């Protein structure tokens, strides 16, 4: 059951038009950022015989995310997942990491406004740069959270030593074993 939590962690929802346009004008082009970064690792999540997603972690200069100036995390979904499930399971993972509600509760309405349901084949990406975290669905910016702590808290779902998926963490960080 705990692996199912990752099934619904990353997703996206529609933004108001003015916010979507702000994304297009003010935030980094994902294609340009992607070509400037180095792949650190990749991993797939499957539950029993169902493939859930494939994920890849990129950083500037192939450094660990804590020391990199930019981090790009991509998930390509292998099945459909509803937007509400994505938000609920993100919260469940933060609880698993023992974050206090005060550390994440203000993000939940923002995530609900950004994340739509995802379909099989959709790619959701998070680009963390300059104390800002921008979400992209299939290469198009869908929303940004301007909080210097959000990017780390979100990525910790996969990258914290206390993640619910330690094997997946190792593969994303380019470690074997």
From TrEMBL:
Residues 1-22 form the signal peptide. Keywords: Signal. The keyword Signal applies. Pfam families: Chalcone_3. The keyword Signal applies. Residues 46-174 form the Chalcone isomerase domain. This is Chalcone isomerase domain-containing protein. It comes from Parashewanella curva.
């Amino acid at each position: 059951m705990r692996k199912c939590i990752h099934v619904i962690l990353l997703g996206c929802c529609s933004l108001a038009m003015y916010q979507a346009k702000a994304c297009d004008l003010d935030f980094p082009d994902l294609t340009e950022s992607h070509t400037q970064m180095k792949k650190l690792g990749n991993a797939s999540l499957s539950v029993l015989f169902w493939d859930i997603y494939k994920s890849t972690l990129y950083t500037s200069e192939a450094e660990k995310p804590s020391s990199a100036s930019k981090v790009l995390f991509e998930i390509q979904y292998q099945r459909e997942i509803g937007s509400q499930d994505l938000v609920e399971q993100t919260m469940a993972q933060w609880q698993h990491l023992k974050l206090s509600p005060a550390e994440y509760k203000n993000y939940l309405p923002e995530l609900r406004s950004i994340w739509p349901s995802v379909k099989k084949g959709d790619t959701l990406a998070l680009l963390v740069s300059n104390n800002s975290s921008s979400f992209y669905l299939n290469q198009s910016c869908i929303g940004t959270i301007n909080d210097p702590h959000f990017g780390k808290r979100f990525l910790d779902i996969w990258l914290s030593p206390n993640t619910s998926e330690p094997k997946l963490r190792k593969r994303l960080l380019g470690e074997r074993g």
